[in-house]
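Entry: YDG/SRA domain-containing protein
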Amino acid sequence: MSLADITGASVHAVLYEPPERDPREVRAQLGLPMNKAKYFVKGLGRKYLDIVVVADTAHRLATGSPLSAHTQAEGDIARQLAALGVDVRSKEADRKTVAANLGSVPGIRVGEVFAGREAVRVAGLHRHNQAGISGNGGTGAEAIVISGGYVDDEDHGWLVVYTGEGGRDQNTKRQIADQTFSSSGNAALKKSCLEGLPVRVIRKTKAKHDTQNEYRYDGLYSVERYWREKGRDGFLICRFRMVALPGAEFEPPADGERNPDTAATEQPTDQVPAGVQEPRRSPTTADRVQRSAKVVAHVKALYNNECQACRTRLVVGDRAHSEGAHIRPLGRPHDGPDTPNNMLCLCPNCHIQFDGGALLVDDDLAMWRNGLREDELHLREDHLVNTDYFAYHRSIHR
C-alpha cells in the first residue's frame, strides 16, 4: 500500500474521470491537513484537482485499497505522480504569479475549473482564499470571485453588477453597516474603473450546500461604472458594473454597449504595441440614453464655455470647448433627468474628476477636490440647479 503501487494507467484513469470526493475527508484519513496543501494536479480538460485525492483514488484503482495513513508526505506524492507524467503544480512556484498581475495569467485558459479556492490561489488567479476582491487601491483589482454571497449581486453572464466588500455580518451574511470606497477591495475596483484596467472573474459553479465547490475562470471584465446605493438590507453598498471583454466565457452581445475593438484584453507589457496600420471598421449598434443637445448648448452658453469648477475657458483654435456634465448620472440605476437643473458646464479635466468622485460639491456649493476644500462652485442666479442631485452624487462616491 505504497506510492510505488500507483501505475500510469490508474492515475491517468483518475484524471480522465475525476472522482467526486471531498478533499478534506481524504486528507483527514491520511493525516494531511487541508490548510497545509502544497500541490495540485492539472487534470485533463479544464480542471485542477487535489493531489492527495488523485493519488489515493489511483492507488485504490491499482490495488483495491487506499493509501496508508500517516505514511505519505505530500512532496513524495508530488514526485511520484510527476514521474508518471502528471502535470503537478507547486504552490510555492505558482504563488509568485499572483502579486499585482493584471490581465490574463500565462498558462490559464478561460473556462478552466479549479477544485476549491486554494486551487484558484495556487494557479495565480486570486490572492485570497475567502475575500471576494483581490487587489488594492494602488494597483487596481486583479480579480474577483462571484459566489452568490451578496444578495444585491446581479450576474447576467457577460454583465455583472457586483457588490463591494465590507459591512457584512460573518454569521448571518447580512449587511449590518454601510460600505465605503476606502476599503482595500472597493478602492481596487474603483482604481480599475478609472484607469480602464482589466479584472479577472472567477465564478463558483456549485451550490452553497455542496462541500465540493468548484470555481471556473471566466476571463477578463472591465469595470464600466461604480456608485453607492442603498441595498436590500437598508445600508449603503458599493456597486460596480462590469462587462465581459472579448474572449471571456460569456461574450457580450454583438449589439452591446462596448465596442470590442477598443477593449484591452492582454496583460500590460513593457513592449511598444505594434498597433494596426489600417484599422478596420465594423457596424455596431448601442442602447444609449438620448441626450438633449439643446440642454447642453443652453448650459454651456450660460457660462460662455467657462468651467464652473476651475473657471478655465478652454480655447482650441478659434473655438471654446466645454462639456455638459450631469450631476445625477443618466444611466441605470441612477436614472437622472436630462434637464438644465441636473447639468453643469465643466472643462474636460473637471468633468472626469466629477464623474469619478474626485470632485464633490456640497449643498452650499463648497467644492472638495481629492479630499481638499476649494472655493465655491460658480453658479449663476438664473441656473437653478437642484441641490438634491449634489447630495445624490456625493452618496454614490463617498
